[in-house]
User: Fold these one by one.
Assistant:
Number 1:
Amino acid sequence: MDTNQKRPFGMKDKLSYAAGDLGCNMSFALKSTIMAIFWTQFMALGETLYATLLLVVQVWDAINDPLLGSLFDADKHNYKRGKFKTYIFIGAVGLLFSGLFFFLPIPKAPKVMRCIMFVLGYVLWDAFYTVANVPYGSMMSVITTDPSERAQLSTWRSIGSMIGNIVPMVLLPILCYDAANNLRGNTVFVVAIIMGAVGLACFIYMLKTTEIRVEENSVTISEKKQKFNVFKAMANFVKNPAAVGATLAAMAMFIGMQGSSTATTVLFQSYFGNAKISGVIMLIGYLPMFLFMPFIKKIVDRFGKKEACAVGSAVSVFGALLLFLPLGNGMAGLVGYVIAQVFFGLGLGFYTCVSWALMADAIDYNEWKNGTKEEGTVYSLHSFFRKLAQGLGPSGVILIMGALGYDGSLGASQPPHVAENMKWLVASLYSFSAIVMFLSIAFIYNLNKKKVEEMNAELSERRASAELDT
């Protein structure tokens, strides 16, 4: 125990924090991997109706994330297990049951009922995801104040996230598509039960092993207590270049990755003619991330988080541009696609491993400039824009796919010209994602290595002074 009777930061904290995002992604990856195909092909909503409903439920996002984040900041109740852990547990349990409702396999139900199921299921899932994910993301700020330890937590969160994404990404296509490359909806529901239970178990492990080292209800650093103002907090977010840059990069990543997921599935269904291998091919793109993960701390300590992410996103731009090579749908085309994925994933790994540490620094930047931490609001606004991209990206892409000739009622049997169009659409989305990420980190995010050191030194002095005054 340290002088505050807290366990010293160590591997237990890293494993615990990784388990939290593994739990989140057991639910999130299922939705992002299967949702569009499940509702457009198996549940037969149709592309336009699906895209419209997806846009409608984003209205809930506009209310959900900032509202719950501000309520979390303003909540000063002394919960038995702590505020962070209480909210996370409620959200974790809700995720399990809302996920099952969302994937009920009843394609012959009246279309009105299917629409209600989609909207209600998505709204419930989204609400519980926010209740769990916003305090989970903000928890990094109360586990440790050390920037190097935060970078380690961010890396281990990324490991948990990648495992939570990779397992469904590889197994779902193998389990849920038949020999004709069409989705088996009943199997999706069974998988949702299993993945929901695993996700809840991961959350429970995290809640039992996480050590909180910073006062949870601390939102100011001076002895003068300021009344919390959500509108001022939102204005501060817009004026926070670090938060804006990190958020734009995350939005670009999700528009490219989540937006292209349906087009990628159709690409493998109809262009390469093998939906089952799509997850394995995507896994190959993740492998380079694991190769340099052990060196992330050294890279960050030597060069800085912003600097590492800028170089990584430039590598992703190169990988995305390789997708435009006209190699056809045979073995040469598949090999070319794999090579492009490797470069794209290698570059993306830099950002993925430290993305949450970027936001932790952005929260500190808000405190440095405005005198208030506002963890929940800053993070929930970041989460809102991420989820906005996760909604607008797939819905917009579905409409583009429809304009390019895609017809969900045909399943895997899309015409050759439509399959070809999916190739160019995927290449375009990846390129857009990588270019915007590079511009956001290199030119908007303003916390380079030197400025982070200056900020942390000044904040440490303020906090020490505040403790002496009390």
Number 2:
Amino acid sequence: MSQIQEIHSKDHVEDSLRQVTDIISRQKLVESLVHKQEGPRHDLVEALVHKQNLVELQKKLDLLHPADVAYILEALPIEDRLLVWELVKADCDGDILLEVSDAVRESLIETMDNRELVAAAASLDTDEIADLAPDLPKDVVQELMKSLDAAKRAQVESSLSYAEDSVGGLMDYDFVTIRADVTLEAALRYLRLMGDLPQHTDKLFVVERNGRLIGTLPLKRMLVHDPEAHVAAVMSDDPVVFHPSDEADDAAQAFERYDLVTAPVVDAKGVLVGRLTVDVMLDFIRAKAEADMLQVAGLREEEDMFSTVWKAAKNRWLWLGINLCTALIASRVVGAFEGSIAQLSALAALMPIVAGMGGNAGSQTLTLVVRGLALNIISKKNANRLMLKELGISVLNGVVWGGIMGVVTYFLYRDLPQALPLALVMTAAMLLNLMLSALAGYWAPNIIVRLGHDPAFGAHVLLTFITDSMGFFIFLSLATVLL
């Protein structure tokens, strides 16, 4: 099987990971056995065995794509990860550093000296250097900038001047331009002279003499139209364009909506300054989704799967501390009704049901609202309608499931004289808490957005606090009054 076929085979990455871990395990076992043996040339034999195992591992790594090596590094404990990293080809270092997560990249950079870091970064494209530069030591960045030619240095500085989540921070400078007054045949000859095209090139950018963008020429139009036709007659004069200051989220949605492969980036005067490509946008979407998932779980930043216990624990302290505070408040709400619970022990068994149902229903509303905010679907015009819809759903669910739970409660405690009032309390408490959870699920992410954070940031923590505390309060208050 050829290398290209191997890269694209099913489960290739997982198979490669298993092979690498098997080689490392076998190496440790064999070297342990050799180390225990005595002999006149013990050190020489041990060194030869170690070298032989490393050669086998290096041959395997040399066949892998940088993205596959990055996947393997992510999945290995730190000791094995550093062993593999030492065997990777030096000319692949930069590509692999871009592929791994921020946490793993930090652990790899710590093992490299300045010369290695400069060489790894210098082999990358301009936009890739800008992506890697924030994670490099300042002295390495200064040395790297000195090693670049003037044009490339200016492009890197331009990329670094934009925010990471902006179009300017994601665009690259490798694109092909053409004039509108040339023929398609001339354009094709120009491409043949280039010999190679930038990756993901599906169109040429048509510009005036001053660099102002006036349209795009899809490659497929060049192939199907008369070679004698001029570019101006065939080009698209209303392309989707972006500005460096545009939000990357908006650009990602546009790429999905219009099925874009590449798109031009222009400045305020319409001059072409860069382009966005689909691979960069996919990486951005994936990274943002992972960040949102971590924020929902209460993690402040990406965590290395095999980081030290101390480092991982510190990463989780923030929301654990907040959760502890909210739990204490919820416990004080319950404590305020100790007398009622003491008189009717069934309340202690039933109140978690009310809080749990509210939490689940609120999560459904919250997930819907977070998605709507992320996609910019929710606006001032439809916000109230969405809130009323969610409130209506909560009323319907409260009547249905609250009624069912009321019947269940009655049959569970029918021997008690307060069985019927208790069932009514259960139904009313569930209805009210589901209504409250719908409002909390709607307002929690909206409040967080107004505070300048991502809607997923801490929304579930806030929702849980509201549904638990108010669920206990509503149920126990009704029980105290009616029973």
Number 3:
Amino acid sequence: MKLSFSNSAGQVLAARIDFPVNRHPHAFAIFAHCFTCGHNLTAMHNISRELNLHGIAVLRFDFTGIGESDGDFVDTTFTTNISDLEDAANYLTEHYEAPSLLIGHSLGGAAVLCAARRIPSIKAVVTIAAPFAPDHVSKHFRDKIDTITSEGRATVDIGGRPFKIGKQFIDDLENHRLDENIKKLGAALLILHSPQDRTVSIDEAAKLYTAARHPKSFVSLDGADHLLSDDADSHYTGRVIAGWSDRYLPVPEKAPIRSDHNVAVRLGEEGYTTEVMVRQHHLTADEPVKVGGNDYGPGPYELVSAGLGACTAMTIQMYARRKKWVIEEVEVHLDHKKDYAQDMEASDEKPTKIDHFERVITLKGDLTDEQRERLLQIADRCPVHRTLHETVRVSTVLKDE
């Protein structure tokens, strides 16, 4: 959802907030983009998606003078970035809920380390490819430093785009050191960095980790580049953050979904990667690569097969336990395909394809042949099996946005 908020200087900052599909997150995060990147970077979108699947809402925005936000980049500093993060936290607190997680990419990572102490609600901080010293970013335009110093500003090329850098930006970077901010962070810290990062050396991550106090964690993004341009790397990063944050964010145990329905599904305008929430549980559905998907999760029919398999196993064990028959383990293996109907009624008509589920059951336990035969009959009585054999009605309504 696109939105905007004003910073302390009265400038309007462009932003968006990504919600879990059920619209009821258990925690809010703020994501600070890398130097000159903007909040629409694909990697940020992918990481936000993974956090959404974990029940975390993510606010990402353009710093002052970047992207669609007001202000001139030449007038900004590292200090204004930190201030923008505080303003973002104030916006969330006023309109939704105080943020408990800060995430920063590259220079945004350095910014969240400085901002965390100023936002009392923060319980966890994550840096991705962040430098230990903010002025590390100056190496991108070191050939222009003399011009910037003497003339007060200069146009530099960063990632193929021109940016005006002011002298106050460089001076401000040099005046910021992260040592004290890291030592007095007051929140759990996760450092993510790739050994192959050619923009910010992994040695910077080692400095961050050494300066930090526990609880602190480091995860290598082996093989990734600085911008996490491979979708697989950014999705992995999101899953790591989501899993790690469980220990530090207020995750409710078995909290019921706050929605009109028990199952909620969302798919964006590209691809087929689909977010699924079932009460408080989350998963991803997708299609195989050969049909245009990313294969990040099971397909719709595979989910139906999984439902049939789970129901079969539960029904068998439920019956066996009632009879006091000991089954050590039930395995159900399934495949789904479209096959031609073989019944006599269809033979006189045009061949018709029907859905065919092949189900193979393995029962581990000391059971007699009679018991096994009875359990095979019981398998056909599982509720999902019976539903698939019944006439099913699906009522659909279109809800206003």
